[in-house]
Write a structure and sequence with these properties.
It is a single chain. This protein is α/β, with parallel strands linked by helices. It is built from nine helices and eight strands. The protein binds cytidine-5'-diphosphate. Cytidine-5'-diphosphate binds next to helix 2, helix 4 and helix 8.
């Protein structure tokens, strides 16, 4: 039987990667992997253990020892660290503010890249992040780069936070997103980049379902596995 493809979706914060990746994985019955959740999990643990954010050596040791699991439960993805549920804890403002620093550490990226490759190597996976098509699975069959205008991405993130009961100003979200994008694009190791062979989609004026359909059509066109 033909190996099922590896689908990668990269792009900046708030471009809709998680929503789209979840829809696509559900439609194709593929595994959905949120690589950002892994960086967030390490960040949460570092903050929780009160490790100095400049102590790269300790942080890498911690990342090596951590047992991070992504567990699909219906529509939701649960994240556990050493069997403790941290699904909500990894989305706090404090984790979001510091995740860039942790994601810029080479040793942390190596540990997580190994885990990501292990999870996706059999195919039949939709993995989203910043460097999946460029560094984690450069050989992936189908690569997408999802983008949207910064104002639109901030608005989406603001709506998400409002829905979950968090009161934050749109301006602060906009500024935080711009700062995180800048850091992700300018870090030395595995920065956010469009893979040469990625299909670029600007979702500024598109509904999530439309984007998902476009991606699903591209995947089906390319492979006759379905
Ligand atoms: O969902 P959101 O756009 O807020 O971000 P995320 O996917 O949860 O990723 C959080 C952070 O993890 C990003 O801003 C990056 O700094 C880092 N990350 C990364 O460096 N490489 C990845 N493959 C995924 C995330």
């Amino acid at each position: 039987m033909k190996k099922k493809p590896i689908v990668t979706i990269d792009g900046p914060a708030g471009a809709g990667k998680s929503t789209i990746a979840r829809i696509i994985a559900g439609e194709l019955n593929f595994l959905y992997i949120d690589s950002g959740a892994m960086y967030r999990a390490v960040t949460w643990k570092v903050l929780n253990c009160k490790i100095n954010l400049n102590d790269n050596e300790k942080i890498v040791q911690l990342a090596k020892k951590m047992n991070i699991k992504l567990i699909q439960s219906g529509e939701k993805l649960r994240v556990t660290v050493d069997d403790k549920d941290v699904t909500g804890k990894i989305r706090t403002t404090n984790v979001t503010k510091n995740v860039n620093t942790i994601a810029a550490i080479q040793g942390v990226r190596e540990v997580l890249r190994r885990k990501q490759r292990e999870l996706g190597k059999k195919g039949g996976v939709v993995m989203e992040g910043r460097d999946i098509g460029t560094d984690v699975f450069p050989e992936a069959e189908k690569k997408f780069y999802l983008d949207a205008k910064p104002g639109e991405r901030a608005l989406r993130r603001w709506r998400e936070l409002r829905t979950s009961g968090k009161k934050v100003s749109l301006k602060s979200i906009y500024e935080a997103i711009k700062k995180r994008d800048y850091n992700d694009e300018h870090r030395e190791i595995n920065p956010l980049r469009k893979a040469k062979d990625a299909i670029v989609i600007d979702s500024s004026n598109m509904m999530a379902q439309q984007v998902a359909e476009k991606i699903l059509n591209e995947i089906k066109l390319a492979s006759k596995f379905s």
